[in-house]
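re: the backbone from monday

yeah here it is again, tokenized this time
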């Protein structure tokens, strides 16, 4: 059970990081940042 919980946590972190990268790319395209 611990291993499964860890995988879920890692997936959440990766998804969050990907979302941040997408936001940064959008800001760069717009030129607001």
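seq for it, each position gets an aa:
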């Amino acid at each position: 059970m611990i291993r499964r919980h860890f995988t879920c946590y890692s997936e959440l972190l990766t998804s969050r990081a990907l979302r941040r990268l997408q936001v940064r790319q959008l800001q760069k395209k717009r030129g607001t940042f």
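The two ends are 42 Å apart (CA to CA). Helices lie at 2-30.
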